[in-house]
Amino acid sequence: MQILKKLLKYLLILLVIIAIGAYFFVQSLKPTYNGELKLTSLKDKVEVFYDDYGIPHIYAQNELDARRAFGYVHAQDRLWQMEVIRRLAAGRLSELFGEELVRTDKLFSSLGIEEASVKTIAELDKNSEAYKQTMAYLDGINQYIKNGPKPIEFYLLGLDKEEYTLNDVYNVFGYMAFSFAIAHRTDPLLTEIKEKLGDEYLKELNISITENSTLIKNEVNPILEKGLAQAVNEIYDNLPISPFIGSNAWVIGPEKTKNGKVILANDPHIGFGQPSVWYQSHIKTPNYEMYGYNLALTPFPLLAHNRQYAFGVTMFENDDVDFYFEENNPQNENEYKTPNGYETYKMVDKEIKVKDSKPVKYQIKVSKHGPIMNGIIEHIVDERPIAMSWVYTQLPNKMLEASYGMSHATSLHNFKDATALIHAPGLNIMYGDTDDNIAWFAAAKLYKLNDSVNSKTILNGASGTDEKIEYLDFSQNPQAINPKGNYVYSANNQPDSIAGMLYPGYYLPEDRAKRIVQLLEAKNDFTKEDIMVMINDVTSAVTPTIVENALSSVKADDFNDVEKKAIQTLQNWDGNYNLEIVAPTIYNRFIYEFLVNTFKDEMGQSFDLFLNNRLQKEINAVQMAKDSSIWWDDIDTKNRVETKQDIITKSIKNTVVFLENQLGKSVDQWTWNKVHTLEHKHPMGEVAALRKYFNVGPFEINGGSEVINNLGFKLDSTGYYQVTSGPSTRRVIDFSDIENSMSILPTGQSGNVLSKHYKDQAEKFNNGEFVSMLMNEKVIKGFGRKLVFVPEE
């Protein structure tokens, strides 16, 4: 018995020692927010003050030192995010996650992103400030790699740290550009509709702009001088990093603000994930100051402000990807037809390393248009070779110089010059300054095709008639400077005509744009607080009209009492998506049933592609307003031709039956909060035992699709609307109180699950609240946490 007691005693001591060791090990993995660290290549000491939300305020004597310190602090909070995004763009996710990500890796490694990065880097000006500061930023990251602890995800996956290079920075730009592109999820679908159903069906889906549509107006005035479809969709579903979706932004001139100074608002819409997309920082030197938001592995912010000016972005949604059918030589499949005879495909050998499996080797064919996607995307069953032509890989990449120039501008003139360097992805750049200028620039390298070419279907690669005929000068891009209406805005909607035409793209419907214009036109005394309310607005300006057009075709006698109450609920709805409202639940199920009953019989298996495509969002209002349509007829019923009334009536009845089974017999029980939720998912959260530690949520949340507080979800048969995308940040910059402009992140500043800042903004985000973006030095230096970097001797 004495021996047993001793053994138990020693075992208990051992367990205590292990627990203490584990505790201190876990503590060692947290970010360092206090103390002193040494960095090589520093010229002077750098002080980093952390505020209550873990945002670093970096004070340095020169910008190279500041950028180096920024690289270090960015890495200690977001190294896992950096690792995932660099591997995604380079086609290296299978090394982490195994065979499930091979399809994703094949797609991204075939796009030419890495090859474009290598070419760009070889031509860089190594003496430019943009290059020098980027290398300082990378040096800061790599010094953390060398001296700092590994994130816990690295231990869970058995991953070693690996230094970062300039290629990784450019690969992130490439991923961002491809994430914005929409053609690969739309053009193959439209081509299939055209070839299988005919031109009449396609014609009804090519949405035309009506005279009442809300367009972004071009207006340039003087500057004030005071100072593939389904497979790609499935691949996107499996991405462990957030894709870019849409966005809102508006800038109000001093004539429309109570305090007589410019106010800028911006909330880029990006797929939700954990950690949050943006990393905040405030950098101050004797000659430079900027409060910015950076993507992982990007040295310069895409959203930023200082005491002189502010800028933000939305997605332009222009068409910068075209697909081409190539025609192989019947005698030699390694040659393809051109107007000048047959040319030889370029062959590129690739290899993907796969965790716990053998490497996957494959070969890519590349025509003059781009890589052949057959064999890369498994679901392409067309025997004709399909090449992808992408502006991003075909023109010089000056994104680094552009982002540097935008964050170092000294006037609206040179800010505009910086935006003109962007060729892809297409961005709407929003600008406001303390000199009372407001501006919007659609930044992208736009081009023209022949008038007869429909760029939203797969083009003829052999004919020579479907090629680009010219690139437009930046002066022909959509833009506005100090317009007479005293505001500029963007909600990813169609811009007004440029170069004598409406530029083709994959623009989102006018819903958010119309609401933004309604609210901005309503008053001329906006305050920061007004804009904070507006950026959280959840009322649709379009759905009441859709409902009215739908219900005008039905007869009350066709419905029972529950169905009538559901109809009345929709008729009384003002488009509001608050949590306790019933109408959004009815409406979204009705839209699903309407789409099924209208399109699924003709589209068959391709219906799932259409259901969550930009095209579907654009078609709803247009289709519902029609009295007749070729799509109304159900081709499966041989003896009759269905009408709009038939489709709407059937959809309402199906909706009510479904919701009674899902949420109960009483219409009053069908509130939006029961079906609309948000969970910020981390790749490690896919493991059930780790979900509660790495994921943030789920939460009931208000908002909905295509309202200003745009919380996107996928329509499907489940009747649940799990939010997949939304505001990646909300920012309100007020030049009358610049030291207390406001913002919020969806979860938190840190991507380190052990940090107190991993999810400390989540509740505020869900409630529509904000925190201050501090710039007052006295306030900042009053916080208790200070990390000092000193030069290593």
Task: Please give a quick description of this structure.
It contains 25 helices and 32 strands. The strands form six sheets. The protein has a twelve-stranded mixed β-sheet with strand order 1-32-2-3-7-8-9-10-18-19-23-4, with helices on one face.
Strand order of the largest sheet: 1-32-2-3-7-8-9-10-18-19-23-4
Terminus-to-terminus distance: 61 Å
> What spatial form do the alpha-carbon principal axes imply?
globular
In round numbers, the mean pLDDT is: 90
What's the oligomerization state?
A: single chain
Low-confidence stretches: 223-231
Tell me the helix content. Answer: 25-40%
The computed structural class is alpha+beta
The whole-angstrom Rg is 27 Å
Q: What's the β-strand tally?
A: 32
- Beta strand %: 15-25%
Tally of contiguous helical segments: 25
Architecture overview:
The protein is an alpha+beta fold. It is 34% helix and 20% strand. It is built from 25 helices and 32 strands. A twelve-stranded mixed sheet has the order 1-32-2-3-7-8-9-10-18-19-23-4, covered by helices on one side. Mean pLDDT is 90; it is low at 223-231.
List the helices and strands and how they pair.
Elements: H1 2-28, E1 35-39, E2 46-50, E3 56-59, H2 63-90, H3 94-97, H4 102-110, H5 113-122, H6 129-147, H7 152-157, H8 166-180, H9 187-197, H10 199-205, E4 219-220, H11 229-237, E5 244-252, E6 263-271, E7 279-285, E8 288-294, E9 303-305, E10 309-315, E11 321-325, E12 328-329, E13 332-338, E14 341-344, E15 346-352, E16 360-366, E17 386-390, H12 391-394, H13 399-406, H14 412-419, E18 427-433, E19 438-443, E20 447-448, E21 459-460, E22 470-471, E23 479-481, E24 487-490, H15 511-521, H16 528-534, H17 543-551, H18 561-571, H19 583-603, H20 607-611, H21 614-624, H22 644-663, E25 676-680, H23 691-694, E26 696-700, E27 712-713, E28 721-727, E29 730-734, E30 740-744, H24 762-766, E31 771-774, H25 777-780, E32 785-791
Parallel strand pairs: 1-32, 3-7, 4-23, 11-21, 25-28
Antiparallel strand pairs: 2-3, 2-32, 5-6, 5-24, 6-28, 6-29, 7-8, 8-9, 9-10, 10-18, 11-17, 12-13, 13-14, 15-16, 18-19, 19-23, 20-22, 25-26, 27-28, 29-30, 30-31
Helix pairs in contact: 2-6, 2-8, 5-8, 9-10, 13-14, 19-22
